[in-house]
What we know:
Blueprint: H1 5-16, E1 20-25, E2 33-36, H2 47-69, E3 74-85, E4 88-98
Antiparallel strand pairs: 1-2, 1-3, 3-4
Helix pairs in contact: 1-2
Amino acid sequence: MKSTSKTASLLKANAQRGNRITFLATECDAKPQTLWAGLGNRAGLHSFADELLRNKWKKSGARFMQKVQNLTGGKLTILVYRATSRDRGRWIPVNCIIV
């Protein structure tokens, strides 16, 4: 079963916000594949972070959407970057979608 348009629009919105999106195929227990790297530490970037995200989406957004449309059988995870201390942080899973 390919991903639905509702799933695709949810992933598109999260990718445009700079969140990381990973995919884990159900057949193997390998490391999750990163579909969209996102933008991690934004400390000190202010409005430049938005500009970086727009440029990144302009360059590779169509390729990302094509990957999303062709996904079959697996688990998608949306991760958000949270700062833990000065210039440090980690990606926290906020949503899982079974495709």
